[in-house]
Design brief:
Blueprint (H helix, E strand, L loop, with lengths): L6 H15 L22 E6 L4 H11 L3 E7 L9 H6 L5 E2 L2 H8 L5 E4 L6 H10 L3 E4 L7 H13 L5 E3 L7 H11 L6 E8 L27 H5 L25 H10 L1 H6 L7 E8 L9 E8 L8 E7 L36 E6 L3 E4 L7 E3 L1 H7 L13 H9 L9 H20 L2 E5 L4 E2 L3 H5 L17
Parallel strand pairs: 1-2, 1-4, 2-3, 4-5, 5-6, 7-10
Antiparallel strand pairs: 7-11, 8-9, 8-14, 9-10, 11-12, 12-13, 14-15
Helix pairs in contact: 5-6, 6-13, 9-13
């Protein structure tokens, strides 16, 4: 068996799935258990699903808050080198390779879960956890397909006592509070365009873009449960270029540079400018486009209509080493936020332009980085002129991990719950769809359908889950 996956079959199955998605049923049999009330002096009993690479960093960060007991560890490859650090930190904590078995055996002992796994496998874990009354911290983006994110938001409404947080950790740092304060004070207003850029080297750069199939099957490592790793996906056999972060390269598994960095760059603008969903998404430039993995570089346009008193805004996304955006006069030096966690492949490599954004309003231009990096007004002369009018920005009362755990205890509200993170994630899902199809998509924001391309509209749902995973797609 090889990894060739029939796109014709994919589309046929997606069309069948779209009909099923229109009439969702009940996720879990019976009534949903309510989350446990956690006392002021108690810690949150946390199960960590995905404990290697980024998942391991999330586990450590949640534990370092001092607000959580790690009560269960789950990873599809407990024998891999990248899981050993966490296993050694918690040698006596029960271990599982299948999250379903973990919930079956320890569900009553778990208050919350962290989900630090590949994009395509966020969805079933999160849906099962919520259906069991467990609070969920899930890494960004929320899910891989538009419909999966939609169902996750519906589940959050159905289970209002379940706390949700998407892991765009900068959403609890200085940029979040500054952006809100500057919007409230009228410093950021009448924004008409935003340039978002991520021009660092990516994993797939250098791959042959004329690849006509997935890589050939290789022997599955003895420590890896390949069946569980695949989750609801189908049609793939094991290859080393599918695991340990490589999944991000493939349309079937990850969301490329946009899904990886979009939530660290556009999150505050999306929330505080009330952008919601776009009315049009276009693939402006795609270098090395193919049906299997992400382009060498992409320029995407997202158009958002007028919202209340705010004018229409266009977001231009640039990724690729040599696909730099236009830089305004007086831009200055591009800095790199030192708090950005390094990828599993090592340190973030310097780029000609570090990840960030340029925000253009009718009167002012703002320069910003990614994650928690704060904005500055450019050019410098304008910044000095505005200095006395800038409002005081409050300090964050808790980082993103503590914010989640305190919310589990009823002490705070999460800053990136599914109601806020969901539409942001759906923006990226639409962008990835435009990338894969290399086209322009016209989108009805109210009905949440693509109006100019039937095939693309069917792909909002994505392929149907393989047998045994259907239950998670019902709310």
């Amino acid at each position: 068996m090889n990894n060739e996956y029939s796109r014709r079959s994919f589309l046929k199955q997606a069309m069948l799935a779209s009909a099923a998605a229109a009439a969702p049923g009940i996720l879990m049999a019976g009534s949903m258990p309510l989350p446990r009330r956690i006392g002021a002096n108690e810690k949150v009993n946390l199960a960590c699903i995905g404990i290697g690479n980024r998942g391991g960093e999330i586990t450590e960060a949640l534990y370092k808050t001092g607000l959580a007991n790690i009560v269960a560890l789950c990873d599809v490859d407990m024998g891999a080198p990248h899981t050993q650090k966490i296993l050694k930190m918690f040698p006596n904590v029960p271990r599982f390779q299948d999250f379903r078995q973990m919930f079956d055996k320890m569900g009553s002992q778990i208050d919350a879960v962290s989900v630090g796994v590949p994009d395509f496998s966020h969805f079933p874990i999160t849906m099962m956890a919520m259906g069991l009354g467990k609070h969920v911290y899930v890494e960004k983006p929320m899910a891989r397909t538009f419909n999966e994110v939609e169902l996750m938001m519906k589940a959050a409404k159905k289970y209002p006592k379940v706390v949700t947080q998407m892991g765009n950790q900068g959403h609890s740092e200085a940029n979040y509070f500054q952006f809100k304060a500057w919007v409230d004070a009228g410093i950021i207003k009448d924004v008409t365009s935003i340039t978002a850029h991520m021009n660092s080297p990516r994993r797939w750069h250098g791959w042959d873009t004329h690849i006509k199939s997935f890589p050939a099957a290789e022997p599955v490592p003895s420590t890896l449960d390949w069946n569980v790793w695949q989750m609801a996906t189908q049609g793939h056999t094991y290859n080393k270029d599918f695991v340990n972060g490589q999944w991000r390269c493939w349309f079937d598994f990850g969301m490329g540079a946009l899904g990886d960095w979009g939530a660290h760059i556009l999150d505050t603008a999306h929330q505080f400018l009330d952008m919601g969903l776009p009315s049009e998404v276009s693939a402006v430039k795609l270098s090395g486009h193919n049906n299997f993995f992400y382009p060498m570089s992409s320029t995407l346009s997202f158009k958002f209509p007028k919202r209340g008193n705010m004018p229409p805004v266009e977001v231009m996304w640039y990724d690729g080493v040599d696909n730099l955006p236009p830089i305004p006069k007086g831009y200055g030096v591009s800095g790199l936020d030192p708090n950005i966690p390094p990828p599993s492949t090592g340190a973030i490599k310097p780029a000609k332009l570090n990840p960030g954004k340029i925000i253009y309003s009718k009167d002012l231009t703002f320069k910003g980085g990614s994650h928690g990096s704060t904005l500055s007004i450019i050019p410098e002369e304008k910044a000095k002129e505005m200095a006395s009018r800038l409002p005081e920005v409050p300090k964050s009362p808790s980082n993103h991990y503590a914010n989640f755990l305190k919310a589990c205890k009823g002490e705070e509200q999460t800053r990136s719950p599914f109601a806020i993170a969901g539409p942001l994630s759906q923006v990226f899902c639409l962008g990835v769809l435009a990338q894969w199809m290399n086209t322009k998509l016209e989108f009805d924001r109210e009905k949440k359908v693509i109006t100019n391309n039937k095939q693309a509209n069917e792909l909002l749902v994505g392929p149907p889950p393989r047998k045994g995973w259907e239950q998670y797609y019902k709310v």
